[in-house]
Design brief:
Number of helices: 4
Largest sheet: none
Structural class: mainly alpha
Helix content: over 70%
Order of helices and strands: HHHH
Shape: elongated
Length: 121
């Protein structure tokens, strides 16, 4: 529990930050009329990536499976490598979005509701 609970909390918090950052960066240049479709496509890609990650981890674990511990360790390190690659991709994507000088408040959901309400009155 001493290792599993903090790692799970950290993973959940990091996943939340990655999801929100990815949505902000992914919807940055999308017109308001197309935001629903773009958001659905991004959510689909997220679910596809999760499924692919689980499948790759299970395949690696199965390839090394004679000792169960070795297979689990190999799957763990492969998923860590994919995670590190994704962190680099996220950092590059956020840097690209930051260079575009986008007004960030417009893409935060609560801020957008306030922004749209303010512009209609």
């Amino acid at each position: 529990w001493a290792i599993l609970l903090p790692a799970t909390c950290l993973g959940g918090f990091g996943g939340m930050l990655a999801y929100q950052s990815g949505m902000i960066a992914g919807l940055a240049h999308v017109d308001d009329a197309d935001e629903g479709s773009a958001s659905a496509a991004m959510s689909f890609a997220l679910q596809l990536g999760i499924g692919l990650g689980v499948a790759v981890g299970a395949a690696v674990q199965d390839l090394v499976s004679p000792p169960l511990d070795a297979g689990l360790h190999a799957a763990f390190w492969v998923t860590i490598a994919f995670g590190a690659f994704m962190i680099l991709a996220i950092l590059f994507g956020l840097r690209h979005a930051a260079m575009a000088e986008l007004p960030l408040r417009r893409y935060i959901h609560f801020g957008r509701l306030v922004h749209r309400a303010a512009t209609k009155s």
